[in-house]
Amino acid sequence: MTAAVLKVSEVFESLQGEGASAGVPCVFLRLATCNLRCAWCDTKYTWDFKQYRYEDEVREVAVEVVATELRALRSRRLVLTGGEPLLQQPTLEALLLELGDEWTVEVETNGTLAPSPALAARVDQWNVSPKLENSGEPLARRLDRVVLDAFAGSGKAWLKLVLEAGDTDEAMDLVRSLGWPLERVLFMPQARTRAELLHRSPAIAELSRAHGVRFSSRLHLALWGERRGV
């Protein structure tokens, strides 16, 4: 693969389902491959090529073609998600240069990879979701304090933590150790189905209220269930 080609999983237009801009119309560019293997991941089709066929799930597409696909859609708010989009940084730089300045850009990242200076300058909003122990990933793989400190200091990043009922102490210890402003912290229930979201949301919402952080639902899951591309 050349530097001018992106590994693309999906391109679609929808509402942002999570985080600080939930409910805002946007275009999603979901990229393939990830450097983590979270047990509860609901987009395993972007990286688990023992369970899914790479040829069925991934398109290797030139930057110019991706830009044309994105421009054909209505919204000019772009959400780069995955997988882990920062695995394809040089090509993302080329894509954003091709698109120009009219786009507002959000990036969903697990917080283990530092953005390049070009991306750090161009991206408008970072949705940073470091994984807790509930992910099943070892600490050394899922947390990079240097990278997280850089995001926290950027002024453009939100910390979104995926919680289960017993994770509050771990989550708040991480928030405090990073010195992340509470007004930019969100707790979100770990849920892969509409039923799980409905069941777990009240407890996580109450924990959010008790600790003075924002609550994030998963709007797309509540509206459309487990359908892809919405």
Describe the fold and architecture.
The chain is an alpha/beta fold and 230 residues long. It has a single domain, classed as Aldolase class I (TIM Barrel, Alpha-Beta Barrel). The protein is built from nine helices and nine strands. The chain has helices at 54-57, 63-71, 89-99, 117-122, 139-142, 145-152, 168-178, 194-211, 219-224, and strands spanning 5-15, 25-31, 59-62, 77-81, 104-109, 125-128, 157-163, 185-189, 214-215. Strands 3-1-2-4-5-6-7-8-9 form a nine-stranded mixed beta sheet. Helix 8 (194-211) links the parallel strand 8 and strand 9 (214-215). It is globular, with a radius of gyration of 17 Å. The chain starts with a strand and ends in a 6-residue tail after the last helix.
**CATH fold-level assignment:** TIM Barrel
Strand order of the largest sheet: 3-1-2-4-5-6-7-8-9
CATH first level: Alpha Beta
CATH level-four homologous superfamily name: Aldolase class I
Apparent shape: globular
